[in-house]
Amino acid sequence: MHDTSTAATTDQDPSTLHSHWSVRVVAYVAILIMVNVMVDTVLAAPTFVLPHLARAFDTDQFAWIGASAMLSGAMWAPLLGKSADVYGKRRVLVITLLVAGLGGIVSLLAPNLAVFVVGRLLQGAAVASLFLTVAIIRDICVPKFALAVTGIVTTGSALFGIATPFVLEPVLETFGWQAVFVASASFAALAAILVRVIVPDTKRRTPGRVDVLGAVVLGIGLAGVLVYISLGQVFGWLGAPSLLSLGVGIAALLLWFLVISRRPEPVIDIRAISLVLGLGFLIVVMGTGAYQSKLQLVGMMVDVSPDEGLGYGLASPLALGLMFGIPSMGIALGGIGAGYIAQRVGPAWCLTAGIVTGTAASTLMFFGNGPSTLPVAVTASFLLSLTAGNLVTSGFNLASILAPAERQATVSGMVMVMIAIGSVTMNFVGSAILGATSVVRDGETVNTATGIYAYIATIGGVFLLAAIPAFFLMRKMRRQVSVSTDTASFSHI
């Protein structure tokens, strides 16, 4: 990766970097995991209550409810990544936590869907928290040790998800869907305090400026195109609102690419992205998008009883806990395992393994009658969760060994943009499939087995397509050193 930025004004003394576990490192990791628990309450927890939210706001736009925060994250990430390199990662992390907490309060008190979506857009700042925790780890640990620690920080929060569904179900019955957003705002406030008081500020700064205008234009472009995918289902793909959104999005992206990105110090220097990093981004955007859309699908399947005769349904006393709790172990195992394995073979191999397990899980779900067989659905979900933990950790690790020290947050932010784009796009695609195949039954619109299975087949197809860039990535990386303690040695890839 060819870096054109100015070197950091304050670099780390190698002797101060952590190379092994200690009480201090454990404390830092525990706090950063708490930060990512908050991220989970923003991104994953609302999927547990999608039917409740749809009823509360009288809408069938599941994709907006489930993906609005991730869409917002795609807009926030470039600005916050660049800001973190220039002004300090800890400072920007604290700010993002406070903004996300405010978003949780707005969502909690929202009187209608429009205000609720505003709250979710504010909560989208939490997406930046994830990649900033990775960048902080890279600042305080030696590169090889950081690979393993990154796996723990990015996916360790999933362990809390094991108990979450079992605890959440009685809480929802007592307090309603609002409990999710109370928890989110509370975690954000507590995490902000702990990060500010305990996590060190390495004082590493990259001289330069933050192109706020460029970040806004890029964010508008991404949002315009992604919103079009959603509005097309409601107003028609050639409807005026849909075409207006698409037109604004494309115009903003063209303006940013042809004019703004060519100025000095753009928020994302796409011309500095190497082939290897680009292939890694492509794998991440496809693989994580497929997994995130699976969460939306599971939320619908566990809300339907097999007795309804729709040809699918997993509702039972244990369904919610099994479908969301057990796979949480898969996310943690996948991420932590990928971090330690990357120390030996490199993150590219781990990315490829993730595509293999994702394809296998989708195949099992489709041919094993997963939508109506709980043991099969739980097994497939566990495999998909292994895939998700692996892909997120390996995507960040690949970026970290390719990016120079002074651009860690910026490049990590680009990984988060890929995750956000994949998640939002696949959620909307899945929602479109279900909407096109739904039927009216007893005066109520319900999803059909045809739609459910088409949704699963689409997820599997995305994993198969991701195997193409994975193949070329492996060919490229076979000629490179897998892992080095010197990040700069990868700058030519």
From TrEMBL:
It is found in: Cell membrane. The chain crosses the membrane at residues 25-50, 62-80, 92-110, 116-138, 145-163, 175-198, 210-231, 237-260, 272-291, 311-336, 348-368, 380-403, 415-440, 452-474. It holds the Pfam family MFS_1. Keywords: Membrane, Transmembrane, Transmembrane helix. GO terms for molecular function: transmembrane transporter activity. One of its GO terms (cellular component) is plasma membrane. It is a multi-pass membrane protein. Residues 26-478 form the Major facilitator superfamily (MFS) profile domain. SUPFAM superfamilies: MFS general substrate transporter (SSF103473). This is MFS transporter. It comes from Sinosporangium siamense.
